[in-house]
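[stage:ingest] chain + small molecule (heme C)
[stage:ingest] validated
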Amino acid sequence: MTSFTGPLKAIKMTLISGLVLVGLVGAFSLSFSKSAKPDKGKTPQATSANYKAEDYVGADTCKTCHEEIYNNFQKTGHFKLTRYGNWTADNKGCEACHGPGKAHVDGGGDKTKIHTFEDQSAKQISETCLRCHAGKEEHNNFRRGEHWRNDVSCINCHAPHSPTATDLKMLVQKEPMLCISCHSEIKAQFNMPFRHKVMENTTKGNVLEGTMKCTDCHNPHGGFEQKQVRLATGGDAPCMKCHADKQGPFVFEHAPLREEGCTICHIPHGSNNPKLLKRNEVRILCLECHSNAGTVGAPDTPSFHNQATARFQNCTTCHVKIHGSNLDRFYFR
Ligand code: HEC
Ligand code: HEC
Ligand code: HEC
Ligand code: HEC
Ligand code: HEC
Ligand code: HEC
Ligand code: HEC
Ligand code: HEC
Ligand code: HEC
Ligand code: HEC
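[stage:predict] done
[stage:export] tokens:
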């Protein structure tokens, strides 16, 4: 994590999220009313106008009664929140999310005197997290995504301090099971004869660097693209991250790659057709564009291509560089 929201951006986000924040109750709501974002290198300002350092007790005090939670918490990335010495108390430790704890402690653990998430909507819970996490590009479109819109909150996927939180990135479950637990219809696509090897990860019991994950192609935190597809470097299709050889630029581009993208010919998850193609025969795919009734701008297949002969049926035996070529206009090499 390199940057949290700077003050200006923070104010903007506070304005944008203003409507949602109206719903928050009690002293905790005040914590959002001022823009105070932990920013590495900067000392975060108090989040509430009523901020009083003496209302906070620090995580060590919470530990005395909530030791198990504290111990789990200690294993998460959030434990850093206890260590930023120069941050105001309301950005630190347990109280960064649960609000001031003194009254709760003085009352011997009075449940009514501490912020819990029990009665909060999914959006309210997410706002708690976005207070600090809306700054990074990875998350700053969360409110534009389908998960936000459909009341999937941060804690549907992340466990702030459950025993499973020892997992990488505090995930409730590892990928792909995390995603499949809600998107069960997608699972079948990754069991088709030809597929990206996403489900194979589960047998290893671990998400390893370099194997496929749903989040290689999708940003679970939202984004501008349809289907929350990720953009790889340079704004190209997510596919380029791993298939850079298809990227070009080529001297002789095959127009649909540039104009319509990979999914005009390929099915991204899985398919009954080799090479994840949309059609079971390559030539059927080609002829859909390269025939009389085909795509505007796509030349007809020349008449010497006798479709009755096996020789011409397998288009890519001759047009081998079908994604584009630097040497040949017809993609022969
Ligand atoms: C990053 C935000 C965050 C931090 C930091 C945090 N919590 Fe929580 N806590 C939550 C959320 C969110 C829930 C509700 C979880 C749910 O409903 O699944 C919760 C639930 C709880 C609960 C009630 C449910 C349970 O799991 O028993 C207790 C008690 C609790 N937290 C204590 C603590 C203590 C103690 C600390 C510090 C050691 C702490 N929390 C740090 C966000 C946080
Ligand atoms: C003196 C002991 C004590 C200390 C210290 C303490 N708590 Fe608690 N806490 C309790 C008790 C007791 C409960 C109620 C448990 C129950 O009824 O299920 C509780 C409940 C909670 C709950 C859950 C409320 C709910 O509705 O389930 C949260 C959240 C919580 N504490 C957070 C904290 C945080 C954060 C701190 C440190 C700022 C803290 N507690 C310090 C004793 C303590
Ligand atoms: C007070 C600010 C603050 C709040 C509120 C907050 N976080 Fe964080 N979060 C942090 C910091 C700081 C880190 C550690 C960054 C680093 O590793 O450099 C972090 C790290 C994380 C990570 C990455 C952990 C890892 O292992 O890489 C996740 C996931 C996360 N937070 C989720 C949440 C969720 C979910 C919530 C709401 C329940 C939340 N955060 C609320 C400040 C916050
Ligand atoms: C639909 C599931 C899902 C939801 C909802 C979700 N996350 Fe995540 N998040 C993930 C997954 C999966 C990863 C790990 C991605 C990876 O392995 O690179 C992740 C990674 C992270 C990280 C660490 C990655 C980094 O940038 O270093 C943070 C921080 C984080 N999420 C915060 C949040 C916050 C805050 C919210 C709510 C606003 C949220 N997440 C909502 C699934 C989710
Ligand atoms: C708690 C349930 C839940 C979890 C967990 C979850 N999702 Fe979702 N997701 C939804 C819902 C609900 C929608 C919106 C309705 C829909 O499109 O199915 C959605 C929408 C999406 C969309 C957008 C679909 C569209 O039509 O625009 C993508 C992509 C997506 N999720 C990917 C993921 C990935 C990747 C993960 C795992 C990191 C994940 N989801 C985990 C519930 C979940
Ligand atoms: C190789 C990249 C890639 C991987 C890996 C991937 N997706 Fe997708 N997914 C896409 C693309 C591209 C689309 C958009 C397809 C389209 O528009 O025709 C999509 C569409 C979706 C949709 C919307 C489906 C619909 O019918 O509208 C959901 C939901 C989804 N993916 C979830 C997942 C889940 C869950 C995983 C992991 C189990 C996953 N994806 C893995 C690339 C991928
Ligand atoms: C995270 C890396 C990664 C991303 C992102 C990715 N792929 Fe792949 N792709 C692979 C790997 C690895 C293989 C070959 C190994 C295998 O069988 O899974 C592959 C295989 C393929 C194949 C050939 C399948 C076969 O049967 O030979 C096609 C076609 C393909 N990918 C298209 C795409 C498209 C289209 C996208 C974007 C929607 C995409 N890939 C995104 C890693 C990736
Ligand atoms: C005009 C249709 C079309 C488009 C668009 C297209 N492909 Fe292909 N692709 C094919 C065909 C046809 C094959 C099978 C070639 C063969 O028969 O060997 C293929 C094969 C592949 C293969 C497996 C064989 C190899 O060359 O590695 C990968 C990987 C692949 N495509 C990735 C991509 C990616 C990534 C994109 C987007 C940048 C893309 N394709 C766009 C038609 C297309
Ligand atoms: C989605 C539609 C589409 C598909 C599918 C498609 N093409 Fe194309 N193809 C085009 C368009 C459009 C052009 C660009 C014509 C231009 O720029 O003059 C083109 C150009 C070509 C050219 C170069 C023609 C020239 O005169 O420069 C060849 C050869 C070709 N395609 C072969 C194929 C083959 C073989 C397949 C099947 C593997 C295929 N195409 C699939 C749309 C398509
Ligand atoms: C045996 C090799 C071979 C096979 C197989 C083959 N082609 Fe060709 N293709 C050629 C040659 C040779 C040309 C003409 C190059 C020239 O005009 O100099 C050509 C040209 C084309 C052109 C460009 C026409 C234009 O006017 O610019 C298209 C489109 C095309 N082929 C589509 C296909 C399709 C679709 C298939 C599969 C059904 C296919 N080809 C199979 C050899 C082949």
